[in-house]
Amino acid sequence: MNNREKIIEVENLVKKFGDFEANKNLTFDVCRGEIFGFLGANGAGKTTTIKILCGLSKPSSGSVQVAGINVNKHPEAVKKRIGYMSQFFSLYSDMTVKENFRFYGGVYGLGKKEIRDRTLFYLDKLNMRSYENMLLRNIPLGWKQKLAFSVASLHRPDIIFLDEPTGGVDPITRRQFWEMIYEASDNGTTVFVTTHYMDEAEYCERVSIMSEGEIKALGRPRDLKTDYQADNMNDVFLKIARNVE
């Protein structure tokens, strides 16, 4: 791990909203190609952190570098180096599959040929070439989520942020989605993922667990289970985030 390139570097990150401190001196890093789990109960400060890392919000203080870019000084440059998939489905339901690829390819600054070639690549990969002219609203949720991941990967970003990507999908689709994550990681893309499914935390190389705006634990799942004398990551999470003995 120490010999790998750091693609995210956060030091003493603080984010305040008036007197409320959403992020309290967060310090962590993420390596290129790593699958990094970012866990915490609702209100723990995860979403605030992700918005800062994506250049959508400025920190109150601290240092944040994403893909070698100072997020506070150059937020627009950061946005070009990342992909993002929201927990709420982020593609347009009143557009076809192909139109969604074309639209986001344009947003990412790709040329027409690049968009066409990469669209066909991902549709073939998903065995969805016959659905390219179908409206998104008519496609099952699991397929939509895989399409959204493909669109987020379209411009070959350094990092893909996934916010609750498998919420509401069946176990088979969840497994297929994680196979896509593994493949992206193997190709050198960093995957920064939040999830409420603690079994998915086991799939991550390292996980961070937040509570009340602070990082309470950070490490490999097997090490955290040992440290907290827990049989699984759900028990680790409960002990940290909910103070369950």
Q: Which regions are unreliable across 5 or more consecutive residues at pLDDT < 50?
A: none
How many helical elements? 9
Terminal CA distance: 31 Å
Shape: globular
- Count of strand segments: 10
Oligomer: single chain
Biggest sheet record: 6 strands, mixed
CA radius of gyration: 18 Å
Quote the average pLDDT: 91
Instruction: Write out the strand line-up for the largest beta sheet, numbering strands in chain order.
Output: 6-7-8-3-9-10
Features:
single chain; 245 residues; alpha/beta; 4-stranded antiparallel β-sheet; 9 helices; 35% helix; 26% strand
Give your account of this protein's structure.
This protein is α/β, with parallel strands linked by helices. The protein is built from 9 helices and 10 strands. The strands form 2 sheets. A 6-stranded mixed sheet has the order 6-7-8-3-9-10. It has a 4-stranded antiparallel sheet with strand order 2-1-4-5. Strand 7, helix 6 and strand 8 form a beta-alpha-beta unit. Helix 3 crosses helix 4 and helix 5 runs parallel beside helix 6. The relative contact order is 0.17.
